[in-house]
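Researcher: Structure for this, please.
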Amino acid sequence: MKDIINRFKITDTKSFKLSDYDTADTAGHQKENAEELLSDLIKQTAKLQTELYAAHNHSLLIIFQAMDAAGKDSAIAHTMSGLNPQGCQVFSFKQPSAEDYDHDFLWRHYKALPERGRIGIHNRSHYENVLVTKVHPEFILKENLPGVTKVKHIDKKFWQKRYQSIRDFEKHLSENGTVIIKFYLNLSEQEQKERFLKRIADPEKNWKFAAGDIKERDRWTDYMDAYETAIKETSTNGSPWHVIPADKKWFTRVAISTIILETLKNLKLNYPILPKEEIEELDKTKAALKHE
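Model: Predicted structure, token format:
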């Protein structure tokens, strides 16, 4: 388990290159063992989820970012299955609304943070504001920011400030009990092509495909640059990125579940210990019930 964390957790941002990470890596695991392993990981995570809820002093925020067809939806469905749905909340962030644009770019994401004791999953996140907007800087103009009225105003200094805002936001969350896990599902361009073709060929999956997906695929290199820069700028000790191979869905799920489980283990969660007076009251209640 520790090997998976060490293998995919980004700790050295200075030398980080996305191209150094194999999108088909399985860390020596075999597909035939994946189902049983995943089931065991989820079972252990479910126990710790109960302890997280009972302790009520941490929350867990899990962020998923990826290119189209990388398997974010299925990864969430498979890795969260078996957990108590009352303790989880999933938010999928689409294009910002008019109300969102009337606030700063972090506003709608702050509103969706998990309460103490709960697990929050963000399918896409505040990182869209340094990813899709980096590839399409004209989208920034919709934010009506002071002094930013033309694309030429969105310069290197602008992006450095935005990365700093994200680092500060996540540091604040971390210092106040929110544990952040960030997953980038690292899909190859060839595998995306194969998955797009499957979506087009299968009537039950046609709804997942949009013509705009191909236009964004044409900007693949730009997106890889944006992701690489975002990961380098925002992977910190308090909220590190994990670059997860996404060409093999079965392994993607195992890796994600492993990292979630180990993160919860590291919190050293315990059930609350009741005060002596309350324990004595419980004993009295127990005795009364037995004598009914």
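Researcher: Any notable elements?
Model: Residues 31 and 250 are 7 Å apart (CA to CA). Strands lie at 59-66, 88-92, 119-123, 178-186, 241-245.
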